[in-house]
């Protein structure tokens, strides 16, 4: 930030408070620098298949990914993921259909990654504005080297296994750009 978002006057070195997250301009306006963004992803299974979308927008246009997008102000997590699912794949599910699957950090791009899951009994879907193609696929159908975000592969493969086993846990992921981790946090007794 170089200028006050409220009144537009130039900020000085002394405007920055703490570690630079907040600024106080000479006119007394307090503003906050943009912090980490919250990315919500919809892991939707129909039987043993998972829902994928072929990205129409950059980054990674033309590559397949799990439907996801940024949470907007005023939304709950479930509302955000239901909206993204609708916008990208034309599948309309109520917010209550989603349950937590994973939380994670993508520290190299300052994003919080929250995956929620839902089960559907129909493969009905269609391309939303941001998708080139959408569909439900078996794990064996996926070319794992060609997906949009290979660092998410462990999370996606785990979602496939859980859909087959019908045994659903909660996971934590750390995606640092150098070493990725994806670990089980909790699972009910089988
Ligand atoms: Zn100001």
UniProtKB/TrEMBL annotation:
Keywords attached to this entry: Hydrolase, Magnesium
Keyword RNA-binding carried by entry: no
Location of the Nudix hydrolase domain: 33-160
Essential cofactor(s): Mg(2+)
InterPro entries per record: Nudix_hydrolase (IPR020476), NUDIX_hydrolase-like_dom_sf (IPR015797), NUDIX_hydrolase_dom (IPR000086)
SUPFAM superfamilies: Nudix
GO molecular function, one term: hydrolase activity
Protein name: ADP-ribose pyrophosphatase YjhB (NUDIX family)
Upper taxonomic lineage: Bacteria, Pseudomonadati, Pseudomonadota, Gammaproteobacteria, Litorivivens
């Amino acid at each position: 930030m170089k200028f006050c978002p409220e009144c537009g006057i130039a900020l000085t070195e002394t405007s920055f408070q703490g570690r630079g997250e907040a600024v106080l301009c000479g006119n007394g306006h307090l503003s906050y620098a943009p912090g980490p963004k919250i990315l919500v992803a919809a892991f939707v299974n129909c039987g043993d298949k998972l829902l994928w979308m072929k990205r129409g927008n950059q980054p990674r246009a033309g590559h397949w990914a799990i439907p996801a997008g940024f949470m907007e102000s005023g939304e709950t997590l479930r509302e955000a993921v239901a909206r993204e699912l609708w916008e990208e794949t034309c599948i309309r599910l109520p917010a209550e259909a989603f349950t937590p699957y994973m939380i994670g950090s993508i520290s190299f791009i300052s994003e919080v990654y929250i995956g929620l899951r839902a089960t559907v009994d129909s493969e009905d879907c269609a391309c939303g504005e941001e998708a080139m193609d959408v569909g439900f696929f078996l794990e064996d159908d996926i070319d794992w080297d060609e997906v949009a975000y290979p660092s998410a592969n462990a999370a996606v493969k785990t979602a496939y296994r859980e859909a087959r086993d019908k045994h659903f846990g909660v996971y934590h992921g750390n995606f640092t750009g150098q070493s990725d981790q994806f670990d089980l946090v909790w699972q009910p007794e089988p």
